[in-house]
Automatic annotation (TrEMBL):
GO cellular component: membrane
Any one biological process term the GO annotation gives: proteolysis
Protein name per UniProt: Regulator of protease activity HflC (Stomatin/prohibitin superfamily)
Compartment(s) of residence: Membrane
Annotated organism of origin: Lutibacter oceani
Organism ancestry: Bacteria, Pseudomonadati, Bacteroidota, Flavobacteriia, Flavobacteriales
Transmembrane segments: 12-31
SMART domains per record: PHB
Length: 275
């Protein structure tokens, strides 16, 4: 002890220095990978990006402090895009899409080495835009607005998937959320669709009326044929017998008073009176 100052033992300082170094070493050597993520290992003195091994999975990992771990999200992600494309006749179409994608976890090393962390901007967006322009350019505004929406959606997905096939990306779906046409074109299409609908309704009513008329003609013809056959089969004797039967039934009625005067046409009696 000199001049009132406390002197530390000579062995303390090396221990403190070693402790500080150990803390720095551990802080640089530990990596925690969260759920839905995976890590690409980059080795400074052993060839750079590791591509022949599986990426680091979720959890706690210890790596050499001179190496680096690049963390990627490997869950499904969504890309919302609004883009202007041209129809087959050169009109501007505003297309809104949602793309579901994720990096292939077992190929993260190659993705990082060949494309990098910004793979969304570098390959997915350009691929989607190229496919959308190619597909939409094959259709008219009328087709885009009405019947071809599902077909266009499937074609954009297939063309985008082909472009990304060797880019270490898994494409799950491309959804066409909305197709916006120029207002004048949209109004013209809606008027045309309305006219077509009215024409179809008129044709339906016309066909229905024609069928009803044909039905009535057939029924009338059937009744006429039945009456003709019945008339041809009736003889004077049959008519006389029927008249007699009817007269007898009428004479037996308690509500009738029978007065026979001479004879009626065809020899049938005349019955008069009623109570």
């Amino acid at each position: 002890m000199s001049n009132g100052q406390l002197q530390l033992p000579k062995t303390i300082m090396p221990i403190i220095i070693i402790g500080i170094i150990a803390i720095i070493f551990l802080s640089k050597s530990t990596v925690t990978i969260d759920a839905g993520e995976a890590g690409v290992l980059w080795k400074r003195f052993a060839g750079g990006v590791v591509t022949d091994e599986a990426p680091l999975g979720e959890g706690f990992h210890i790596v050499a402090p001179w190496n680096e771990v690049i963390v990627y999200e490997v869950r499904q992600q969504e890309l919302y895009e609004k883009m202007k494309v041209l129809s087959s006749n050169g009109l501007d179409i505003l297309l809104e899409t949602s793309t579901w994608y994720l990096p292939k976890a077992n190929e993260l090393g190659k993705l990082h080495q060949q494309i990098g962390e910004n793979y969304l901007e570098r390959i997915i967006k350009p691929a989607l835009r190229s496919a959308a322009r190619s597909v939409v350019g094959r259709y008219t505004p009328e087709q885009l607005y009405s019947s071809k929406r599902d077909v266009i959606q499937n074609e954009i997905f297939e063309e985008t998937r082909i472009i990304l096939e060797d880019q270490f990306i898994q494409l799950n779906e491309v959804l066409v959320r909305d197709v916006t046409l120029p207002p004048t074109i949209k109004d013209a299409i809606e008027r045309k669709l309305k006219q077509e609908q009215e024409s179809l309704e008129y044709e339906f009513r016309l066909v229905t009326a024609t069928k009803e008329a044909e039905k009535q003609i057939i029924e009338a013809q059937g009744k006429a044929d039945a009456n003709r056959i019945l008339s041809a089969s009736l003889t004077d004797k049959i008519l006389q017998d029927k008249g007699i039967e009817a007269t007898i039934k009428l004479s037996e009625s308690t509500n009738s008073k029978v007065i026979v005067i001479g004879s009626g046409k065809d020899g049938l009696p005349l019955i008069l009176g009623n109570q």
